[in-house]
C-alpha cells in the first residue's frame, strides 16, 4: 500500500506543486482508509467457535500404499484432487529397522472431521476413511480416541464415525442455501497435519459440479466453490460463515499439483444434514428419484426448442415409468425451473434440491410447456419406483430396478426369459460393473424372469450364512453381447 501511495505522490509532484501533491495525498489516504474500513472483517469469533469442533482423523491400514497415490487424489485429468493427506513419503525415509511389519496397520492417511454431537458423532468424507482398518481421532485439546464407522455414502462422499466421548463441542449448522457468492467464509482443518488451521476466502460459486470425478461414482455434486486455501489433510473439515456456522464439508480442490492453487469445493449442509440423519436413523441413505433424464438449457437448445419464457432450467429428455416425473405428468421438452419454489438453473441444483428429501416426501415442481408455466405436486419414489424405506442389508441396496422384458425383445435376442436392469444408481450392481440395460437371464445358475425371482435369490444368498456372498449374473446387453458379472454382497450386511 505504501508503494502505491508513493507512486501517486511522485506523479502529482511532477505535474504540479508540492502543496498540491500533499493535499492530494491526504485526500487519497482518507479515501483509502474509508475503503479499508468498509472491508474490515473480524474472523476471530468464527474461528473461536469452530476450532474445537474440528478434529484430525488418522487412518491406518495393513495396505502399504494409498490407492489414491501420494497426494491422495484421483486425478484422471491432472486437475481435480481430493485432499486426503498421505504420510507415505515420511514413512519411506525411516530406517528399515524402524519400519513396522507389513501385517501391522500403518498410517496411510490424514484428514479432518467435524463434531456433530456432544457424545461423539463426527462427519467426514468417505474417501478419508475408505479402506481404513483403524481410525484415530485427535481433538483440538490433543485428546485421542479410536473411532468406529457408523455408515458411509459414496455417492455424496460423506461418512459418519463415532468416538466414545462426552461433553464435546459440536458445531452449529448453518443454512448453505442462504450463502451468497462473494460472502466471506473460513475453512478449518488439518492441512499437512498442522492441527486446527484456519484459512479465509470468499464463496466463488454455488452448485458447482466437478463431473462425477470421484472414481466415476460421485453422483451427487452441488459444491460450494471457495478460494480459501485448502491442502492435503483438509479433507472432511469445516467450511463456516462468519457466525461460525457450518455451511459445508470440504471435499476437493482444483489443482495441478495436489496442493492449493486457487479453488476448493465443499459439500453443502443441505446435503450433509440429510445424509447424516439417514445414516443414523436407517443405517443407509434414503435416496429419492425424480425419474427423468434432463439436460441443461442453453441458448442453442432454447432456440431449437422455441423456448422463450425462461432462460435457464433443466430440459426433460425422457421420463421413466413408475416415477415421480410420470405422476407429475412431465413430458419430453418440458423445462423444469424450480422445486418447492427454489429455482434450479442447472442439473447440479436440481440434484441438490431432490436430495434434500426422502422417498414418500411430496414436492412441487415448476415447469414450462409450450412457454406456459405449470406447478404440480407429486410424491417422491426410490429407484425401485416405490416409497419403501431402505434398510442396510436389504434388497434395495443392489441399487437398481428390474423390469420384465417384452416378448419381442426375447424373440429378437433369442432368449426365453430375463429381466432388464434399469435406473442404476450407487450400489452393489454398479460396483460390480453392471450397466443400465443389462438383461439378466440367470443368477447363480437359476433362471430369472421377474423382480420377485431376483429378490428371492438375493434373500437366499443373504440367509446362507456363508463366508462368501456373491451373485453370479449371466446375461447380455440389447446389442447381443454376452457378459458375466460377480456381485459381492458382503458389504450389504
Write up what this structure looks like.
- A 6-stranded antiparallel beta barrel has the order 1-3-4-7-6-5.
- The chain has 4 domains: 2-32; 44-285, Thrombin, subunit H (Beta Barrel), CATH 2.40.10.120; 292-379, PDZ domain (Pdz3 Domain), CATH 2.30.42.10; 395-492, PDZ domain (Pdz3 Domain, Roll), CATH 2.30.42.
- The chain is built from 12 helices and 26 strands.
- The model is unreliable at 1-39, 65-102 and 212-218 (pLDDT under 50).
- Strand 25 and strand 26 form a beta hairpin.
- It is globular and about 70 Å long.
- By secondary structure, it is α+β, with helices and mostly antiparallel strands.
- It has helices spanning 2-15, 18-38, 44-50, 88-92, 126-129, 269-282, 299-305, 324-328, 347-354, 407-413, 428-432, 451-463; strands at residues 54-61, 80-82, 106-115, 121-125, 134-138, 144-153, 158-162, 172-173, 184-189, 197-208, 223-226, 238-240, 245-254, 263-268, 292-296, 314-319, 335-339, 342-343, 362-369, 372-379, 401-404, 419-422, 439-443, 446-447, 470-476, 482-488.
Amino acid at each position: 500500500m505504501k508503494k502505491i501511495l508513493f507512486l501517486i505522490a511522485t506523479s502529482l509532484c511532477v505535474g504540479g506543486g508540492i502543496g498540491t501533491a500533499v493535499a492530494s495525498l491526504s485526500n487519497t489516504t482518507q479515501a483509502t482508509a474509508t475503503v479499508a474500513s468498509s472491508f474490515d472483517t473480524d474472523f476471530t469469533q468464527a474461528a473461536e467457535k469452530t476450532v474445537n469442533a474440528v478434529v484430525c482423523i488418522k487412518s491406518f491400514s495393513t495396505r502399504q500404499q494409498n490407492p489414491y497415490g501420494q497426494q491422495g487424489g484421483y486425478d484422471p485429468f491432472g486437475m481435480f484432487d481430493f485432499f486426503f493427506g498421505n504420510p507415505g513419503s515420511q514413512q519411506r525415509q525411516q530406517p528399515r529397522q524402524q519400519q513396522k511389519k507389513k501385517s501391522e496397520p500403518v498410517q496411510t492417511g490424514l484428514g479432518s472431521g467435524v463434531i456433530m454431537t456432544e457424545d461423539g458423532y463426527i462427519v467426514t468424507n468417505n474417501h478419508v476413511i475408505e479402506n481404513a482398518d483403524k481410525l484415530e481421532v485427535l481433538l483440538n485439546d490433543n485428546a485421542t480416541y479410536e473411532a468406529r464407522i457408523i455408515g458411509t455414502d459414496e455417492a455424496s462422499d460423506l461418512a459418519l464415525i463415532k468416538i466414545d466421548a462426552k461433553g464435546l463441542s459440536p458445531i452449529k449448522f448453518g443454512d448453505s442455501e442462504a450463502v451468497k457468492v462473494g460472502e466471506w467464509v473460513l475453512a478449518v482443518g488439518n492441512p499437512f497435519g498442522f492441527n486446527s488451521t484456519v484459512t479465509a476466502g470468499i464463496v466463488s460459486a454455488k452448485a458447482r459440479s466437478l463431473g462425477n470425478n470421484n472414481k466415476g461414482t460421485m453422483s451427487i455434486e452441488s459444491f460450494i466453490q471457495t478460494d480459501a486455501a485448502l491442502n492435503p489433510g483438509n479433507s472432511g473439515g469445516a467450511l463456516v460463515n462468519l457466525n461460525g456456522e457450518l455451511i459445508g464439508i470440504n471435499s476437493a480442490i482444483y489443482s495441478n499439483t495436489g496442493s492449493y492453487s486457487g479453488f476448493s469445493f465443499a459439500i453443502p449442509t443441505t446435503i450433509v444434514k440429510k445424509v447424516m440423519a439417514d445414516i443414523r436413523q436407517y443405517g443407509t441413505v434414503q435416496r429419492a428419484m425424480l425419474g427423468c433424464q434432463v439436460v441443461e438449457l442453453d441458448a442453442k437448445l432454447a432456440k431449437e426448442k422455441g423456448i422463450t419464457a425462461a432462460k435457464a432450467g433443466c430440459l426433460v429428455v425422457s421420463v421413466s415409468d413408475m416415477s415421480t416425473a410420470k405422476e407429475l405428468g412431465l413430458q419430453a421438452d418440458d423445462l423444469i425451473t424450480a422445486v418447492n419454489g427454489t429455482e434450479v438453473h442447472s442439473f447440479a441444483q436440481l440434484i441438490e434440491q431432490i436430495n434434500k428429501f426422502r422417498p414418500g416426501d411430496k414436492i412441487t415442481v415448476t415447469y414450462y410447456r409450450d412457454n406456459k408455466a405449470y406447478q404440480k405436486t407429486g410424491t417422491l419414489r426410490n429407484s425401485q419406483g416405490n416409497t419403501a424405506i431402505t434398510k442396510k442389508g436389504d434388497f434395495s441396496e443392489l441399487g437398481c430396478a428390474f423390469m420384465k422384458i417384452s416378448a419381442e425383445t426375447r424373440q429378437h435376442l433369442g432368449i426365453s426369459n430375463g429381466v432388464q436392469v434399469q435406473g442404476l444408481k450407487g450400489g452393489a450392481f454398479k460396483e460390480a460393473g453392471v450397466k443400465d440395460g443389462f438383461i439378466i437371464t440367470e443368477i447363480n445358475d437359476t433362471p430369472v424372469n421377474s423382480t420377485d425371482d431376483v429378490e428371492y435369490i438375493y434373500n437366499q444368498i443373504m440367509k446362507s450364512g456363508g463366508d462368501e456372498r456373491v451373485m453370479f449374473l449371466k446375461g447380455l446387453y440389447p446389442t447381443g453381447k454376452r457378459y458375466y458379472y460377480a456381485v459381492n454382497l458382503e458389504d450389504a450386511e
